[in-house]
Amino acid sequence: MSEECTLQIDPEGEAKIAGPLTFDSCPGLYAAMEKRLHDGAILRRIDLGNVSNVDSAGLALLLEWQARHSAVGNCLVIHGAPTGLQRLARLCNAMPLLGLAGRDEA
């Protein structure tokens, strides 16, 4: 049985993602975030401290959320990035686009 990815957004706008941020979990996570934002949730910060695994789909999802916030002049802080995400973002030259803070820097 595969591990489930969960999303929680607190009233201050911090989203906490736990579990694998992968090709399998991203569609459901995207839909859950869209629903929460449509229902009026505010997103200011994403905590990846409990993310167990990230692949290119997870990176693409974070880039999408960051781009959408930047397009309307908002700052989205992503922190607690696992080492695998940091490596993948460096490989794709996406670190400046994401503004990641790693687990050791959070």
Essential attributes:
106 residues; alpha/beta; Transcription Regulator spoIIAA; 5-stranded mixed β-sheet; globular
How would you characterize the overall build of this protein?
40% of the residues lie in helices and 28% in strands. It is an alpha/beta fold and 106 residues long. The protein has a single domain, classed as STAS domain (Transcription Regulator spoIIAA, 2-Layer Sandwich), CATH 3.30.750. Strands 1-2-3-4-5 form a 5-stranded mixed sheet.
- In DSSP terms (H or I, runs of 4 or more residues), the helix count works out at 4
**Helical/strand content category:** alpha/beta
Stretches with pLDDT under 50, minimum 5 residues: none
Helix content: 25-40%
Largest sheet: 5 strands, mixed
Distance between the termini: 31 Å
Task: Please indicate the count of domains.
Answer: 1
Number of distinct beta strands? 5
What is the C-level CATH assignment?
Alpha Beta
**Alpha carbon gyration radius:** 13 Å
CATH architecture: 2-Layer Sandwich
Mean pLDDT over all positions: 89
Strand content: 25-35%
Strand order of the largest sheet: 1-2-3-4-5
Q: Can you summarize this structure?
A:
With 106 residues, the chain is α/β, with parallel strands linked by helices.
